[in-house]
Design a protein that fits this description.
Blueprint: E1 3-7, E2 10-13, E3 18-25, E4 30-36, E5 43-49, E6 55-57, E7 65-70, E8 75-80, E9 89-96, E10 112-113, E11 117-122
Parallel strand pairs: 2-11
Antiparallel strand pairs: 1-3, 3-8, 4-5, 4-9, 5-6, 7-8, 9-10, 9-11
């Protein structure tokens, strides 16, 4: 059984930075961050495959966000720089069991989810 717990959300002004963390237990072979803004569908932000460190990003965050993982601490991170109001939403940590690494991408198929953490970016 996989358990996920996010932390690190908050409020920041446009152009600022935040770092999210996700404490995980269980099979965390493929992990990712997703977000959902009010009135919008959930969007894949980034994924990382534990076996080889392969990362994938959604187009809207490429070059601004960085996903990383500390396997020793079983913790997933999302460093968010250059934040803008369109990044506002609830951010969820997610995990799935999949291989090989090219199947670990910010799309459907994740079946373990955290409770989410709010990120608010003001202009």
């Amino acid at each position: 059984q996989v358990q996920l717990q996010e932390s690190g959300g908050g409020s920041v002004q446009s152009g600022g930075s935040l770092k999210l963390s996700c404490a995980a237990s269980g099979d965390t072979r493929c992990m990712g961050w997703f977000r959902q803004a009010p009135g919008k569908e959930r969007e894949g932000v980034a994924t990382i495959y534990a076996g080889d460190g392969t990362t994938n990003y959604g187009d809207s965050v490429k070059g601004r966000f960085t996903i990383s993982q500390d396997n020793a601490k079983n913790t997933l991170y999302l460093q968010m720089n250059g934040l803008n109001p369109e990044d506002t939403g609830i951010y969820y940590c997610a995990a799935r069991r999949v291989w090989p690494s090219y199947l670990c991408s910010p799309g459907p198929g994740f079946n373990y989810w955290g409770q989410g953490t709010q990120v608010t970016v003001s202009s």
